[in-house]
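Subject: for your reference before the review

Hello V.,

The reviewers asked for a structural picture of the protein, and I figured it would be easier to keep everything in one thread rather than splitting it across files. Below is the amino acid sequence we used in the manuscript, unchanged from the supplementary table.
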Amino acid sequence: MSQRDELIREIRALSDAEAVRALTVLAEDRGLLSSAEQMALPGGELGEALTAAGVEPGGGAGEGDVARAALEYAALGGDDVVGEAVEYVRSPMERFDPVSVSVGVLAVTLLQTEVVVKRDRRGRWSVTVRKRALKDAALARVLTALLSHLTDGKQAPGGLHEDAVRVDV
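And here is what came back from the structure prediction:
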């Protein structure tokens, strides 16, 4: 079993709380935590934008599912810090300062280099997905888990125009 496969197995074995903490550690390591703390993420509107982008919700994904999908995506992208974050959250908690940022915000913040989420002057959300061939399946799992989490596994209501979504290949 390769190191990457072992890391993916460890990520999938994380409890929900450990997965969210590991995602927080990863965002903090990348210097994205302050951006995440300031980001407002209305779930309904973002859910509509993801649906318009062709993302279908899976079964009701919880915070842990979203966090594990985002961690797996980062690990498959070769981010060595993911393994350190997983190891860190499994260690004693005395040195961890929990942060109150939603997992949806953390996932979107982590993906900002791959997924651009913007709001126009009229308040409509748009999503631009930059696909990379080797990571399409992992990115799809993150977006599916995020949409499922935001919509409790239900299809988000319509309301976005086709021009709200752009996919760059």
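For the response letter, the relevant points are probably these. The first strand starts at residue 115 and ends at 119. The two ends are 31 Å apart (CA to CA).

Happy to draft the paragraph if you're swamped.

O.
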